[in-house]
Fold:
Amino acid sequence: MSTQNTEQLIETIFNLKRLIFSQLQKTTQISAEKMIQFEALSFINSQEKTRMKDLARLFGITPPSITCFINKLEDKKLLSRKHEKQDRRNVYLELTKTGKKFLETTQKNIKSKMINFLSPLNEKDKKDLINIYQKLFKHYERL
Structure:
């Protein structure tokens, strides 16, 4: 791929990400803070066990910063911390009932908006996009 195409693709990815995020905020009335909480809870829910450092790595922030974030989620009763019996230094995060309800409601809301957002694509476009995303995902999953 030429440098020009690569740069255009990078710019398009960033612009599309910003646009999708902006549109989701407008149409779902979900604040940026709640979108970040949603991302965190989705990640925790998708893993068998999630440690605080796993979440810090996901967001690219330091462990002390993630502790502050986790404290806020815990104060809102969205998650709880569980200490491993064998080694209490290992702290795992689990969604509470309230956290699961928040995640479910937000997922439904976002999914309905994303279906609308993707409506300009025909079935072939969608399959092509799935293949591209899966190819990238598999590549970066190995890293």
About this structure: DSSP finds six helices and three strands in the chain.
